[in-house]
Predict the structure.
Amino acid sequence: MTGKTATGKCLCGAVRFEASDVPDSFGVCHCEMCRRWTGSALLEVSVPTGSVIWQGEDHIATRRTSDWAERAWCRECGSALYYKVTMTGEFAGNFDIPLGLFDDPDPFTMTHEIYIDKKPESFSFAGDDRKLLTRQDCIDRFSLLGET
């Protein structure tokens, strides 16, 4: 699906999007903040911010949730809309959009899980053909995270 266009929306439809340059992969984050934000792990597709057109932007609320990122949700239904790194640098410039918002989530393949050591023992995803990073791996690889 790389380079393809995809569409999606929140639960109530007040916020919709069309994205181009959409990859064919998605990742999973098991950190405590993502788990609390979504109620589970965050399954996300990372799309360049310049390739997403949002409709219903007046329904989008944002909150800075760390020194380096913000999260957005629909003011009407509460659906999580995106995670975005706000600092300049290597990881800036993408909307990490929850997989469940896409109208057709089938073409995506899971390629990585981060904060795997923070994943609750009560569930796991099938398969073993993806990259797994612990919290410390993420701190080492993504220096913007610091020691938080």
The radius of gyration is 15 Å.
